[in-house]
Amino acid sequence: MRRLCYIILLLLPCKVAAQDFSVSDTLLSSKVEMPDTKEAASPQPAFRFAYISYGEVRQQMPAYKQARQQVEELKAKYEAEAERSEEEFQRKFTEFLEGQKDFPSNILIKRQAELQDIMERGMAFRKECEQLLRMAEDKLMLGVDRQLHAAINAVAAENGYAFVLNTDGNACPYINPLLGDNITDMVRLRLSITP
Asked: In order of start, what are the domains of the chain with their CATH numbers?
């Protein structure tokens, strides 16, 4: 009895498939158009996507170039101050070496401590400069990135893209051009960048 139920269950899909086939025959005989096999064979994406080299477009933006210039100017100012501090250290160190044999021990110790202090302040200033430069660059680039994100979002929304891939860093070694669109030129146009 159990085997009989099992065999019936196995044959049931075949019977349904046979009924489906007969329905298809009926549709064909009544001249219903079937889809072209060439169209059915080509892959149709469920959604559209785009890709862009974020870094490439970012570096072409006038706002990016202006931000880089501001960072370079700030870096030059910090560098000039650091060099002034190093020159002061060199001058005092030379004076120390010249007068070292003539100084009493308490002045010698005081001058050594002074040189040590100048050197430590110079090193601390360099570290602080590096940190301040990074913070300034991050702040300046934040505005650039917001502008670029807004342009990418607008282009993506206007064209109905599900998402936009960033191809920088070899993140996408292959993208099928039939399935994804390169929106670099559209974003450049949006940002008024001429290549």
From this structure: 48-190 (3.30.910.20)
pLDDT digits (tens, 9 = 90+) for 66-76: 999 999 999 99
Cα–Cα distance measured from residue 110 to residue 20, given in angstroms and rounded to the nearest whole number = 102
Sign of CA dihedral 69, 74, 78, 80: positive
Tokens 């202006």, located at residue: 66
Mind listing the pLDDT tens digit for each residue in 137-166? Answer: 999 999 999 999 999 999 999 999 999 999
193 burial via Cβ count (<10 Å: 0-12, 13-18, 19+): middle
What is residue 181's three-state secondary structure? strand
- Note the pLDDT of residue 44: 57
- Amino acid making up residue 178: L
Q: How far apart are CA 121 and CA 134, in angstroms?
A: 20
> What is the rounded distance in angstroms from the CA atom of residue 97 to the CA atom of residue 64?
48
184 with 56: CB under 8 angstroms?
yes
